Amino acid sequence: MIEKLISFSLHNRVVVLLISAVLFGWGVYSVQTNKIDAIPDLSENQVIVFTEWMGRSPQIVEDQVTYPLVTNLQGLPQVKYVRANSMFGMSFIYIIFDDATDVYWARQRVLERLSTIGNLLPPGVSPTLGPDGTGVGHILWYTLDAPGMDLGEQRAVQDWYVKFALQNVPGVSEIASFGGQVKQYEITVDPNKLTYYNLSVPQIIQAVRANNNEAGGRKLEQSSIGYMIKTTGYIENRADIEEIPVVTRNSVPVKIKDVATVQLSGETRLGIFDLNGEGEAVGGIVVMRYGENADEVITNVKAKMEEVAKGLPEGMNFNIVYDRSGLIRESVNSVKKTLIEEMIVASLIVIIFLFHWRSALIILIQLPLSIAIGFILLNAFDISSNIMSLTGIALSIGVIVDDAIVMVENAYRRLAEEEDLN
After folding, report:
1. Is 85 helix (H, G, I), strand (E, B) or coil?
2. Average pLDDT for residues 293-307, to the nearest whole number?
3. Which residues are CB-neighbours of 316 under 8 A, at least 6 positions away?
């Protein structure tokens, strides 16, 4: 078989050169389109189900939320196993699928199953899916540099402007906000006043909910002019909450301000984000979607940041604290340098020992062609260019060079012996 292949190649050199040129062109295209990342994605093919039930102990969450979800999600097709973790007020379930399972098909099957088991959970508890990212999807971290600005204002800019803008970048699964204060209105009820007015906390809650709403009317035509009728009832400031009536006693409304104190506060936090020991900061984490090109996504996010920065408040700027693109470029440049050095060294060795430039040219052609074919296979198996795959290519170059030198030297010696005999 090998003899026939060698014989065919020798008698059809043009065909061999054309095939090599096609493979090399295909390889160059594969190099340009291959996904680039710094580290390989070795995480399991999983779907995360997150459920929040604040105020409940881990045991209650385990019994009433985690256990019903786990027992019903175990019967999904192509599921290897299901892991769960219950903590104070929260439940995390990790459904591990087979490696060959499409992640979006798996997410769809989990959603279908969750829609059928909602009646098994406590009222008001609604499980949600985690982002369609992987364990290595955190590709960029940033903070908002705004000296002198309140942390609550910074978090509001992050949650209501920056986050929505960056989520539109192709390949971004989620922008996870961190740090700062999430603004909220806090109603501190006086128990003595509640007793005096014979009220309860649920009545206060119901009054606030009922008065934070709008209702639509209809169109009214008068003097050939159409008027749209609607009520405006959304709470806009602290005074609106204070003026909400709860009940009426002797034709006098009892308002929120009569039984409670309303103040602007922040949501309860479990920790803070400190930047370089200089104080608390507000920012976000860019989570890449499953199977995307990390280098391309980071480039697009940075370009979007430049556009978003034009609409930030005066004095506020982006500060990138973690950027994987630097590690990606260093990895790629290191492999490129290694390839060039090995090709030059191999060619010099052949030229010095054989004094034959055609033999050196064969090795110079063989090395890039072999690498090009390697990238074709990387794309075929959907493997990204990362530290491990590029290092494997760099290590294999040594084997390729050794084989090339041995084969070229042997062919050169045999041809030289044949010429001496003739």
Report:
1. strand
2. 91
3. 144, 145, 146, 149, 154, 157
Tens of pLDDT, residues 181-228 = 888 889 999 999 999 888 999 999 999 988 888 777 777 787 778 887
**Which one-letter amino acid corresponds to residue 37?**
D
Task: Give exposure, 284-300, as e/b (b: 16+ Cβ within 10 Å).
Answer: bbbbbbbebbbbebbeb
CA 185 to chain CA centroid, nearest Å: 32
DSSP state of 122: P
Length of the chain in terms of residues written: 422
Least confident span in 5-9, 177-181, 201-205: 5-9
DSSP string, 371-403: HHHHHHHHHHTT--B-HHHHHHHHHHHHHHHHH
Strands in 283-289's sheet, in edge-to-edge order, are: 172-178, 283-289, 133-145, 317-323
Question: Smallest Cα–Cα separation from 320: which of 385, 275, 350, 376?
Answer: 275
The DSSP secondary-structure symbol of 16 reads H
- With residue 141 as reference, give the H or E element that holds it: strand 133-145
Q: CB neighbours of 100 closer than 8 A, spacing ≥ 6?
A: none
Q: Please classify residue 138 by burial: count the beta carbons closer than 10 Å to its beta carbon, then call 0-12 exposed, 13-18 middle and 19+ buried.
A: middle
Q: Token pair 């033999």 is at which residue?
A: 359
Distances (CA, A) of 172 to 165, 197, 222, 297, 382: 11, 53, 51, 7, 19
Average pLDDT over residues 29-57: 85
- Residues 129-152: tens digit of each pLDDT: 988 888 788 889 999 998 888 888
Q: Which range has the top average pLDDT, 130-134, 165-169, 340-344, 415-419? A: 165-169
CA-angle at 338, arms to 332 and 344, nearest 5°:
140
